[in-house]
Amino acid sequence: MAKKLVIIDTDCGIDDAQAIMMALAAPGIKVLGITCVFGNATVENVCQNVLKVLSVCERTEIPVFRGSAGPLVGASYSLSDHFGSDGLGDVIVDKDPQWEQKVQGEHAVKAMLRLVSENKDQVSLVALGPLTNLALAVRLDPLYPQKLKDLYIMGGNTEGKGNVTLCAEFNFAMDPESAYVVLEEFHCPTHIASWEFACRNGLTWDFFDELINQDTPAARFMKNITSKCSAYSQDALKNKRDLYFGPCFVSYDAYAMAACIDNSVVMESVNCAVRVELQGLIGRGMMVLDRTNELKKTNNASVMTKCDVVKLSQMLIQSLRLPCKK
Ligand SMILES: [Ca+2]
């Protein structure tokens, strides 16, 4: 069977690392390239993080491209230290001094355009960070979205619950204009794993312990990068997620990746137009669902609402059994 072709656009924090490993472990997936964007860390750190993940999984043949270092407009918010200042929990001591030579010379946005032109209608794009690279891609080639097979986004919110601001989810809040451009102009099948969707389909901390205590290089790596990270400290009072949804283990980006690998992991979704609020004192960056077609938009998105958590758990377990021969 032909493999599904995937480009991963990432701001490689810990959950991105998990999602990338999920793609690497999936027998039906071929990763054409990984494009980097600022977000959980600087784009330079993100590139290093992706290279590190590929090295742990022994998949260094996959090309890595450096992309946008900041949002389209202004400086939206300072970089998050949710996953540590380097994005991977500030525990990696053996940083690769040669990392820059291992990043491709081609810019991430150009690579996104080229890889899709070479494989028209066959590529699934999985966006796990701020959407800056995607917005630039559609500016350079307005027909770019039509050349994609489909688009999977981790980002946005459906209930007005924010995690970095009162009403906005991190990836959209970091670059609201880019999120707006993508939701308006990517007229391809679009699947969104929102923040609330991930939180409402969280897993137990017992499962997390089982996941990271597997005896494999990838699991040991995941155990190491989560070991000193407050996001994995199980302290119920630490963040808004636990306040709103109760304590649970949530690997955000894994939800979008799981849906791309096997769409049956999505048990229910809402199909409607979506838009990002760009103004407002407290609403900037918030995603709005247009269930009654007030906006008269011609493109809809499939907004995930219910996840098959058993299937997701199996995919997560499998993803940390790397490296393996495909
Ligand atoms: Ca991410």
UniProtKB/TrEMBL annotation:
Q: Which Pfam families match?
A: IU_nuc_hydro
Ranges where the Inosine/uridine-preferring nucleoside hydrolase domain occurs: 6-312
Entry protein name: Probable uridine nucleosidase 2
- CDD domains the record matches: nuc_hydro_CeIAG
Q: List the source organism.
A: Gouania willdenowi
Gene3D superfamilies in the cross-refs: Ribonucleoside hydrolase-like
Family of the protein in this entry: Belongs to the IUNH family.
User: Tell me, what is one Gene Ontology molecular-function annotation carried by this entry?
Assistant: hydrolase activity, hydrolyzing N-glycosyl compounds
Question: Where does the source fall among the domains of life?
Answer: Eukaryota
